[in-house]
Amino acid sequence: MHILIIEDDLDLGAALQRALNAEGISSEWLRRLADAPRAFADDAFDCALLDVTLPDGSGLDLLARWRRDGVALPVLIITARSGLDDRLAGLDGGADDFIIKPFATAELVARMRAVLRRQARQASERWSIGALEIEPRRYLAWLEGRALELSPREFHLMLELARLPGSVVPKGVLAQRLEPLGDAIDFSALEVHVSNLRRKIGAQRIRTVRGIGYMLTA
């Protein structure tokens, strides 16, 4: 999982990145609205953690702009404001969840995973796509009840395709998602990982959409 953090507090931002990294979650940290991207054409992040009170404005205004512009990135509001009106403003403004400071990292991670499950239309920690089952948190997968032996790259590739089963994921997105903190892997390496994954889960489960990318099917 690779997330965007927009939080101005230096101590909290650094602590969040350390705690999330310990959970195997990479992140990019910004501190101002002015630094926030206006669009996410490359699908660079799985979700965003957005503070309400920032030095140059309200996070809710940024959220409203994202939603007006059609940005569908899942957003969790993080704030010290605990009033009902504040929570309703965030949720009605397009937030997917709301968490009050101070919070436990375990709760934050659980809420992020719940949001991503809803996005992937999965009801539990074990995702099901036809005969394929995946537990993202434990890095486990099964095909027709048989445990799969996947490399870390193969597992992450399968997970990225499984987030939106039946939808085409562009090659450029996959190449960047497999190396979120560095340069995207080249397409020839990506094709090798896709070929290896096909061999293990069945070639018919990964469809190539020529000139665009790949799609996981049931």
At a glance:
With 218 residues, this protein is α/β, with parallel strands linked by helices. 37% of the residues lie in helices and 23% in strands. The two termini are 23 Å apart.
Write the layout of secondary structure elements.
Layout: E1 2-6, H1 10-22, E2 26-30, E3 47-51, E4 53-54, E5 57-58, H2 59-68, E6 75-79, H3 84-92, E7 97-100, H4 105-119, E8 127-129, E9 132-135, E10 140-143, E11 146-147, H5 152-162, E12 169-170, H6 171-177, H7 187-201, E13 206-209, E14 213-216
Parallel strand pairs: 1-2, 1-3, 3-6, 6-7
Antiparallel strand pairs: 4-5, 8-9, 9-10, 10-11, 12-14, 13-14
Keywords:
elongated, alpha/beta, 218 residues
Structural features, described:
By secondary structure, this protein is α/β, with parallel strands linked by helices. It has helices at 10-22, 59-68, 84-92, 105-119, 152-162, 171-177, 187-201, and strands spanning 2-6, 26-30, 47-51, 53-54, 57-58, 75-79, 97-100, 127-129, 132-135, 140-143, 146-147, 169-170, 206-209, 213-216. Helix 5 (152-162) crosses helix 7. The longest helix has 15 residues, at 105-119. 28% of the residues are buried.
Number of strands: 14
- Report Rg: 18 Å
Mean pLDDT: 86
Give the termini distance in whole angstroms. Answer: 23 Å
Proportion of residues in β-strands = 15-25%
Return the string of H and E elements.
EHEEEEHEHEHEEEEHEHHEE
Strand order, biggest sheet? 2-1-3-6-7
Uncertain segments are none
